[in-house]
Amino acid sequence: xxxxxxxxxxxxxxxxxxxxxxxxxxxxxxxxxxxxxxxxxxxxxxxxxxxxxxxxxxxxxxxxxxxxxxxxxxxxxxxxxxxxxxxxxxxxxxxxxxxxxxxxxxxxxxxxxxxxxxxxxxxxxxxxxxxxxxxxxxxxxxxxxxxxxxxxxxxxxxxxxxxxxxxxxxxxxxxxxxxxxxxxxxxxxxxxxxxxxxxxxxxxxxxxxxxxxxxxxxxxxxxxxxx
Length: 227
Known about the structure:
Layout: E1 13-16, E2 23-24, H1 26-40, H2 47-50, H3 58-64, H4 70-86, E3 93-94, H5 98-107, E4 111-119, H6 120-129, E5 138-142, H7 152-163, E6 171-175, H8 178-187, E7 190-194, H9 202-207, E8 210-212, H10 215-222
Parallel strand pairs: 1-4, 1-6, 4-5, 6-7, 7-8
Antiparallel strand pairs: 2-3
C-alpha cells in the first residue's frame, strides 16, 4: 500500500500495547504496587520479581509472582487500583517519539488501536491526559466486570472488530512482553518487539517481524529514509 509520499506501508492497522510500549508507566505502577504491599502488611519483593508485574493483569501478578491466594490478590488489587487512580496514574508519560509516530501513521490513513490488559478506563484517561486520544481510533482494555480475565488475543480481536474491515493480515501489534507476543500469535497478527520496554526476550525477538531497540527505530521501520 502506497503512502501519500510514496512510502510503502504494509499494514492498514497498527495496534500498540500500552504499558512499556506507548507509555512509560513504570514509576506509577511500582509506586502503587509498593502501597498495596504495605497495606497488605507484606514485604515488598525484590526488583527482579517486581519487574514481572509489568505487562500481565495486576491480579494475576499478585498471585503468580507474590504467592498470594485469590482473596489476598483481590484485596491487594483493590489497594493498588485506589492508589493508582489517585496518584500512580499521574506518574506516567508517553515514550519520546511515539506521539510523532502516531501522527505520521494517521497522515497515511493507517488505523491506530491500543490493545492493553490495563483497565480500559485508565488507559483512556491517560491518552486524554497526554493529549493523544485524538490520534487513536480505538482503545480496548480489560473491563471491570471481567476481573481481568480477558486474554491479549481477545483484546486484539475486539480492537480489530471495532476498527472494522481490517483483515488480520493487514494488522500488526507492537508490544514489549511475552503476553503481547503470545496474544499476537494467537490472534493471527504480526508482532513487532518493543525492546525499549519492559520484557522483550529471545522468544519475543524470534517471533517478531522487527525488533525496535528504541522508539526512533519504530519510526524508521514504518517510514524508511529514502536514499
